[in-house]
Design a protein that fits this description.
Helices cover 26% and strands 11% of the residues. It is of the alpha/beta class. It has a domain at 12-189 and 329-344: Rossmann fold. Strands 2-1-3-4-6-5 form a six-stranded mixed beta sheet, with helices on both faces. Helix 3 links the parallel strand 3 (73-76) and strand 4 (114-120). Helix 1 crosses helix 9 (330-344). The longest helix is centred in the last third of the chain and has 15 residues, at 330-344. The chain starts with 11 loop residues before the first strand and ends with a helix. The mean pLDDT is 92. Bound molecules: S-adenosylmethionine. S-adenosylmethionine (SAM) is lined by residues 17-23, 38-41, 44, 59-61, 77, 79-80, 99, 326-328.
C-alpha cells in the first residue's frame, strides 16, 4: 500500500456526529488531530468542549461542505436509533436513517484518505427504500464516490475483544481511497484481561462524577429481589409491576425477554445504552440497589477517569447516561485508530 503523506505531523480528522467524543478520544490517543467536529445535541456539545475541543453546533443538514476544513480522515457514527433493534426499525424511512447521505455528501467534497463509519448491528439487516440491503447500497455508493472511490470493508466487532469491559456489538466500515491502494485489515482480537465488573467498580473516592440517576420506586421495589448475576426472572410474581406480570404470563409470546439483568462482579457487563433503563441495558450495580454511577458507566465504556462529566442537576445527570451510552468505547476506537495509523499513515 502507498503510504499517505501529509504536511501536518498528525493526520487531520473530520468528526461528524461527534457526540461527547468517545470515538474522537480513541483517535486522538492513536495520534490523530481533530480539526472539525460537529453535533447538534447540547449535552454532547458541552462534554465534547470540556474534554476534546471546539465543536460546530449546527444540524449537519445546515452545514455547507465549504464550512468544513479538509482532512485526512473522516469519522461518523451516524445516529443509530432508526437501525437499532430497540427502536421501531423503520430503517431508512425514518428521516434520521438518511443522515448517512450527509456523510456521503461530505466525503464526496473532501475525499479524505480514509473514512470510518460506526453503527449498530441492525444496520446490517436494514433495507433501502428500493428493497436492496442498505449495506449493499452504501458499498456501491462508496466504491465509486468522487470518481476515485474507496476500498471498503466492514465487520461486526464486540467491544470486549478490544480492551473494553463490556459486551457491545457494533459494525464498523473502513474505507481507504482507492488511489492509495490496499484494503484495511481489522485488528486482531485482544485477549480478555481484567474486563469483569470487579475490575471496573473499584473507583477511588476522589474521582469525580460518582453520582447515580435514582431508579423509580417501581424499579427499586423489584431489584431488591434480583441476586447478583440474576435478572427479572428471579423476582417473585407478586412483586412484579403489572406490565411485567403480563409478560411473565405469556413468556413464549414475548420471547422470554431478559429484562433487569444484574451482571455479577465476575461477568463482563452488558451493553450500556443511551436510555440507561434496566429493561434493556446493563445498568444495575451487582450488589447495590442502584444504577451504576456516571463514573462507573463511563468506565464500562472505557473513558479514562480524567474525562469530565457534568452532574450538577438531575437533568444533567440523566443527560450524562445518554451521551455515555451513545459513545463508541474509547479503547475500541483506539484499537481501530491505531490499526489505521499503522496501515495508512505510517512510513514503514
Ligand atoms: C451515536 S451518537 C455518536 C457518538 C460518538 N461517535 C461518540 O463516540 O461519542 C450520534 C450523535 O449524532 C448527533 N446527531 C444526530 N443527528 C444530527 C444532525 N442532524 N446534525 C448533527 N448531529 C446530529 C446526535 O446528537 C448524537 O450525539
Amino acid at each position: 500500500m502507498t503510504k499517505a503523506s501529509s504536511q501536518h505531523t498528525k493526520p487531520q480528522l473530520i468528526s461528524l456526529f461527534s457526540g461527547c467524543g468517545g470515538l474522537d478520544l480513541g483517535f486522538i490517543k492513536a495520534g490523530f488531530e481533530v480539526v472539525w467536529a460537529n453535533d447538534f445535541d447540547s449535552d454532547a456539545q458541552a462534554i465534547h468542549e470540556l474534554n476534546i475541543g471546539k465543536i460546530d453546533k449546527r444540524d449537519i443538514l445546515n452545514v455547507h461542505e465549504n464550512d468544513i476544513p479538509n482532512g485526512d480522515i473522516l469519522t461518523a457514527g451516524f445516529p443509530c436509533q432508526p437501525f437499532s433493534n430497540a427502536g421501531s426499525r423503520k430503517g431508512v424511512y425514518d428521516s434520521r436513517g438518511m443522515l448517512y447521505k450527509e456523510c456521503l455528501r461530505i466525503i464526496r467534497s473532501k475525499m479524505p484518505k480514509v473514512f470510518v463509519f460506526e453503527n449498530v448491528k441492525g444496520l446490517l439487516s436494514t433495507k433501502y427504500i428500493d428493497g436492496r440491503n442498505l449495506v449493499d447500497v452504501l458499498l456501491e455508493d462508496l466504491a465509486t464516490i468522487g470518481d476515485i472511490g474507496y476500498n471498503v470493508v466492514y465487520k461486526l466487532l464486540n467491544a470486549s475483544d478490544y480492551e473494553v469491559p463490556q459486551n457491545r456489538q457494533r459494525v464498523f466500515f473502513v474505507g481507504i481511497r482507492k488511489d492509495l491502494g490496499g484494503t484495511f485489515q481489522f485488528p486482531e482480537k485482544i485477549k480478555k484481561h481484567n474486563l469483569t465488573l470487579k475490575h471496573v467498580l473499584d473507583v477511588p473516592k476522589d474521582v469525580p462524577n460518582q453520582v447515580d440517576w435514582v431508579l423509580s420506586p417501581q424499579a427499586l421495589g423489584m431489584i431488591e429481589y434480583i441476586p447478583e448475576g440474576g435478572s427479572w426472572k428471579d423476582i417473585p410474581y407478586e412483586h412484579l409491576a403489572p406490565r411485567f406480570k403480563k409478560i411473565r404470563d405469556d413468556m413464549k409470546k414475548y420471547r422470554s425477554p431478559n429484562f433487569y439483568r444484574r451482571f455479577s462482579r465476575d461477568e463482563i457487563c452488558g451493553t450500556m445504552t443511551a436510555s440507561a433503563q434496566p429493561e434493556n441495558c446493563g445498568i444495575l450495580h451487582p450488589i447495590k440497589n442502584r444504577r451504576f454511577t456516571i463514573r462507573e458507566a463511563a468506565r464500562i465504556q472505557s473513558f479514562p477517569d480524567d474525562f469530565k462529566f457534568i452532574d450538577d442537576s438531575q437533568k444533567n445527570i440523566i443527560a450524562m447516561y445518554k451521551v455515555i451510552g451513545n459513545a463508541v468505547p474509547v479503547n475500541l476506537a483506539y484499537n481501530i485508530a491505531k490499526a489505521i495509523m499503522d496501515q495508512v499513515f505510517t512510513e514503514k
